[in-house]
Amino acid sequence: MALGETELHDMIRESVRDIAGDFDREYWREHVDEEEFPTEYWQALADDGWLGVAIPEEYGGEGMGMLEMTIIIEELSRGGGQGGIVFVLTPVFGGIGITRHGSEQQKQEYLPKIADGDMRFCMALTEPRAGTNTLNIDTRAEETEDGWLVNGEKTFISGVENADTMLLVARTSEFDPSNPTHGVTLFLVDDPAEREAVSLSELDTTVPWFEKQYQVHYDDLHVSESDVLGAVDGGLYLLWDTLNTERIGGAASALGGGLRAVDLAVEYANEREVFGAPISSHQGIQHPIAESYAKLTAAREVTYKAAKKWDEDEDCGMEANAAKLLTSRFGTEAADRAIQAHGGNGFTREYEVYDIWQNLRLTQTAPVSNEMVLNYIGEHELGMERSY
Fold first, then answer.
1. 314 and 306 in contact (C-beta within 8 Å)?
2. What kind of architecture, by CATH, is found in domain 7-120?
3. For residues 310-321, b (16+ Cβ closer than 10 Å) or e, as one string?
4. How far is it, in rounded angstroms, from Cα 102 to Cα 122?
5. Pseudo-torsion of CA 212, 218, 221, 223, nearest 10°?
6. For the residues 255-280, what does the mean pLDDT come to?
């Protein structure tokens, strides 16, 4: 148990480990190969109440917080497969986003379905020209008599084919240098893949993932006033609030993945014998794995601190970004060392460690690059001049 954990948190860990243990490597390999959403896994999480962990009880959730969600994501990732990161899109962008910023009607419509596992979300933010510069997005929503018409393009959008609702970020007013954060609005778009005004182009990516990545084109997509999440032109502040939870959730997933790599490296090193002794008895194998475990244990404390501060409605920007930075680096390093401990077997499909490395290496680039994280820390925490 980490510092500050309670018996409740220990119970959550055990329950989540039991769920993860019911879905073996073959299950995940099949769903990655077939690019098929893990429906049975998703429903098992819903049946135990974990998809609604941070949703208020009056809307069918468990009424807990980001710390509990962080523990769940960590344990699901440590349990194998891709069970941790699957948590981010719907419970974070859907559940937390609507809980924090939705109207009463939106809460009643969406939150019970999320908690029950009956609704999945995707997030449409990244654009080809804007990249991490959200202020530079080109997707625009022009106001009409009965709502808005959206035109533009998004890229690297995950899971649109499985999404019941898309959280769409669009500009509703011209960019004003004197008020740069004004003019962006968040919309809830139901059944995005079935809308005639939405067209999808699949991207050819190499990361082993069960969902596809798309370029998404909008051609006069109609959205109504009831589809607005929060305030018109005020979506950027809401987005930043939600992105902190994305960073925390992503850090928990990278943390669990790194610990999974350590677990597999230890298991293999204890079983594999060379020159009459387990390779775990050799310091060249043992020390790198032990060091990675120490680094991940330290990164866990920063991640939990970020989650606790978020739950207490305190500014957690530093901790959330530091957690994302450290877990992505330490997790990738742990997977790399696990591959090395496995030797040639580390590059075969029979063993899991290379898949873990590919997924963890992505976390250094997405959902935000580590360079942008360092920019934030340098500017906002250390008071250094803006570097970009």
1. no
2. Orthogonal Bundle (1.10)
3. bbeeeebbbbbb
4. 17
5. 70
6. 97
CA distances from 178 to 14, 174, 175, 231 (A): 52, 12, 9, 20
Residue 230: other Cβ atoms inside 10 A: 21
Residue with tokens 């530079």: 136
Compute how many other C-beta atoms are within 10 angstroms of the C-beta atom of residue 270.
12
Q: 219 by DSSP, 3-state: which?
A: strand
Under CATH, to which class is 237-381 assigned? mainly alpha
d(CA 252, CA 286): 25
**Per-residue confidence band for 33, with pLDDT thresholds at 50, 70 and 90:** very high
- Amino acid identity of 57? E
Name the average pLDDT for the chain: 95
Would the pLDDT of 2 be above 80?
no
User: CA-CA distance, 133 to 127, in Å (whole number)?
Assistant: 9
Residue 239 clears pLDDT 60, i.e. is over it: yes
Q: Where in the chain is the domain with CATH 1.10.540.10?
A: 7-120
Q: What is the pLDDT of residues 288-335, one digit of tens each?
A: 999 999 999 999 999 999 999 999 999 999 999 999 999 999 999 999
The residues, any chain, with a CB within 8 Å of residue 84's CB and separated by 6 or more, are 73, 74, 75, 76, 77, 78, 252, 253, 256, 257
C-alpha 77/C-alpha 339 separation (Å) is 18
pLDDT of 1 reads 54
The Cα–Cα gap between 310 and 299 comes to 17
CATH 2.40.110.10 region(s) of the chain?
Answer: 123-233
pLDDT above 70 for 8: yes
Global pTM?
0.95
Is domain 123-233 classified as CATH 2.40.110.10? yes
Which residues of the chain form CATH 1.20.140.10?
A: 237-381
Name which of 354, 315, 362, 313 is nearest 335 in CA terms: 354
